[in-house]
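haha ok so turns out i had the wrong file open the whole time. this is the CORRECT one, sorry everyone. sequence first:
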Amino acid sequence: MILSRLKRLVGTHVMVLRARCVHWTKPLTSSLPLGTLADLGRSKSELVAENALLRQQLIMLKRQVKRPVCTKTDRILLVLLARVVRAWKQALLIVQPETLLRWHREAFHLYWKNKSKAHAHKPKVATETIAFIREMAAENRLWGAERIRGELLKLGMHVCKRTIQKYMRQVRTHQPGGQTWATFLRNHAEDIWACDFLQVTDLFFRPLFAFFIIELKSRKVIHVGVTRSPTDPWVAQQLREATPYGHAPKYRHHPDSCVLVELSKEGGLRE
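then structure:
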């Protein structure tokens, strides 16, 4: 009698313990880390069978017309898991591989957008510098952004060309009357040479400066000079070499400015 009761008591406790173990090792849908830890104590055959069962249910779910709703947490987990799974494209059933890649790109953009966001709200250009730009743009209608940038550098103010153009547009709202600068260049192209510098690097990443002179009308290269340290005397020497025997146009035009410089017969410059 006592032995039979003891057997029933032990059997009851074993069933309760077994039910608890099944409950503890059941895949947790609300918590992925806890479910992963619970799967560590299960056999490989059981995990393979359960994986097949879940895969079949996902195949059935894929047949539905409505798409399942993916939260932000689901998207992050799928992206992170796809990084460590070698055959992640074959493991995706309810999400297309292109969709997962798009989520990854969006996360990449959000990360760098937040990283590059300016924390300080101080103006990038000083108020005094903005006033100088507007004043020079208003009083010198033929000065371009590059010319104004050069004048600011003489005063120790370092401003990029696009910033200068931004504040120039606020001052030069109305174009002056008469022919435009493009029309003037087109009408007098045969009497104008254009010149500019081109910076390149050699095999050992050392800077080289190439000075080009072309004929504006035919786009023919007149002269090319290369140096490591361009100076005013060096540029004057290049102009003298490009104009032998006094053969030269009347004007020289810089592409980044609206200034014509007259070439003298000695190779000098007169603005």
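The chain has three domains: 44-58+69-113, 127-171, 183-270.
again sry for the mixup
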